[in-house]
């Protein structure tokens, strides 16, 4: 059954319509006002899908979560500080490829979804998910400022009976050491008055084989009641919930997943560079090794790490480990190697141009792809931006084409870059000195690219099967 939201007025204590419907006269009043235990009442509201769900942070993690719970019939509120995003969603328009505008428009029209930047509405939520960014600082330390600020915003209107779940990836201890004290600062107690859990997001943008509903949810609570409350909520939305003993175990599980990938990607990148010197095709080697039906999982080289997890999350653990006088040597070594990959790509491009009597300084380069992986519109931490910066420093003139990112995005660390998007046409290709394949989007016509570009430097083996133009394709 779909529960509708109505926000017609708002005062200092939150939306008037919401508070009246709950019988709540002030932010710290007990949920519902009955004599039923707080915990049991929360579980009852969850299982009847009357619980109001709030999602804080409407990016590539938060917006799919909004869609998931709305599709399951929960009334949902979305929160984001970016008013442009709020306005766009309230008009029924999505800005993320994996979340169709039609789905957002439907939930908004049915008054099942309300999006706002006003945190006073949090007082009316029964469950609050936190999906805010956790980047690294300039010196490589965890930046948990968004988590801390979000916890403070929630604590200002926290009331009995609420469940708060952190989904943002962080180091083991974040939920207990940062979230819990902030939420308890006005006197309410975790496990008795409110409930607090950690459940890592496990999104894989562009993966059509596993939807958010199909990916098992790991859940750890500050205490047993918090774990059970969070698990009960997720069980209403996803196929499988994996309960672990603590928030720390859940936080560590997410880091293990991404460290596993980080280390193995570093390994295959190192092998790529080694085999290149030996004159061996690393892609052929991976294909051959992949025929083993056990004991091997294929990882593929690229121009550097990208995305919101793998380039960042391992360093959260290495930073926290130092608190325990432990050095994470594998993590640090993998990070160092992966960070060097854009330099390797530029060196290969420079060498390929030199063989053809050209210099990188003054060369016209067409970058193909800005997204961090194939067939998505997510540019976060994409190696494309480091490559653009290096090309700019070398004096090259760069344009780009990405069918999923038609407008050059504003990035946190690369605001100085100004790169023009161009159409991918034979004329454009013939007018550059080299095409640099950074993201192997399926929409690219690689045969057309190979036919018209004078030189292709391919970091993804996207042109691996184009034997006819082999002489002008360089793998990097």
Description:
It is a single chain. It is built from 15 helices and 16 strands.
- The CATH architecture of the largest domain is 3-Layer(aba) Sandwich
Q: Uncertain runs with pLDDT below 50, 5 residues or more?
A: 6-35
CATH class of the largest domain: Alpha Beta
Number of strands: 16
Distance between the termini: 54 Å
Structural class comes to alpha/beta
What about the largest sheet? 8 strands, mixed
- How big a fraction of the residues is strand? 5-15%
- CATH topology-level fold name of the largest domain: Rossmann fold
Radius of gyration: 25 Å
Name given to the CATH homologous superfamily of the largest domain: NAD(P)-binding Rossmann-like Domain
The general outline is globular
> How many distinct domains?
2
Strand order of the largest sheet: 5-4-3-6-7-8-9-10
Mean pLDDT: 90
Helical content class: 25-40%
**Count of DSSP H/I helices:** 15
């Amino acid at each position: 059954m779909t529960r509708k939201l109505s926000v017609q007025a708002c005062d200092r204590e939150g939306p008037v319509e919401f508070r009246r419907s709950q019988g709540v006269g002030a932010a710290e009043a007990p949920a519902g006002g009955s004599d039923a235990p707080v915990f049991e009442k929360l579980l009852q509201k969850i299982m009847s899908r009357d619980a109001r769900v709030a999602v804080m942070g409407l990016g590539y993690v938060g917006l799919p979560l909004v869609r998931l719970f709305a599709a399951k019939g929960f009334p949902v509120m979305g929160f984001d500080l970016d008013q442009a995003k709020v306005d766009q969603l309230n008009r029924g328009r999505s800005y993320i490829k994996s979340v169709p505008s039609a789905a957002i428009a439907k939930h908004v029209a049915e008054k099942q979804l309300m999006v706002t930047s006003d945190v006073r509405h949090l007082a009316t939520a029964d469950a609050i998910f936190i999906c805010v960014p956790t980047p690294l600082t300039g010196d490589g330390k965890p930046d948990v400022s968004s988590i801390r600020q979000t916890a403070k915003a929630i604590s200002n209107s926290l009331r009995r009976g609420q469940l708060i779940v952190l989904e943002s990836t962080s180091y083991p201890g974040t939920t207990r050491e940062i979230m819990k004290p902030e939420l308890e600062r006005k006197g309410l107690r975790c496990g008795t008055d409110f409930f607090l859990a950690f459940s890592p997001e496990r999104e894989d943008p562009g993966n059509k084989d596993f939807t958010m509903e199909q990916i098992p949810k790991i859940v750890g609570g500050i205490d047993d009641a918090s774990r059970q409350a969070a698990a009960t909520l997720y069980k209403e939305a996803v196929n499988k919930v994996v309960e672990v003993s603590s928030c720390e175990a859940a936080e560590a599980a997410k880091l293990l997943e991404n460290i596993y990938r980080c280390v193995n990607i570093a390994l295959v990148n190192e092998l790529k560079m080694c085999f290149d010197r030996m004159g061996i095709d690393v892609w052929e080697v991976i294909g051959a090794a992949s025929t083993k039906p056990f004991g091997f999982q294929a990882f593929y080289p690229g121009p550097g790490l990208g995305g919101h997890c793998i380039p960042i999350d391992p360093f959260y653990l290495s930073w926290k480990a130092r608190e325990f006088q432990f050095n994470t040597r594998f993590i640090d070594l993998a990070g160092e190697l992966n960070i060097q990959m854009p330099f390797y790509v530029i060196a290969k491009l420079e060498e390929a141009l030199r063989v053809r009597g050209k210099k990188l300084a003054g060369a016209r380069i067409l970058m193909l792809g800005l997204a961090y992986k194939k067939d998505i519109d997510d540019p976060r931490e994409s190696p494309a931006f480091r490559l653009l910066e290096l090309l700019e420093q070398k004096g090259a003139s760069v344009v780009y084409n990405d069918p999923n990112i038609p407008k050059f995005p504003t990035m946190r660390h690369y605001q100085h870059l100004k790169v023009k998007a161009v159409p991918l046409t034979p004329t454009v290709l013939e007018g550059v000195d080299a095409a640099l394949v950074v993201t192997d989007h399926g929409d690219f016509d690689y045969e057309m690219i190979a036919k018209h570009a004078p030189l292709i430097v391919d970091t993804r083996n996207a042109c691996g099967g184009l034997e006819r133009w082999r002489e002008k394709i360089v793998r990097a």
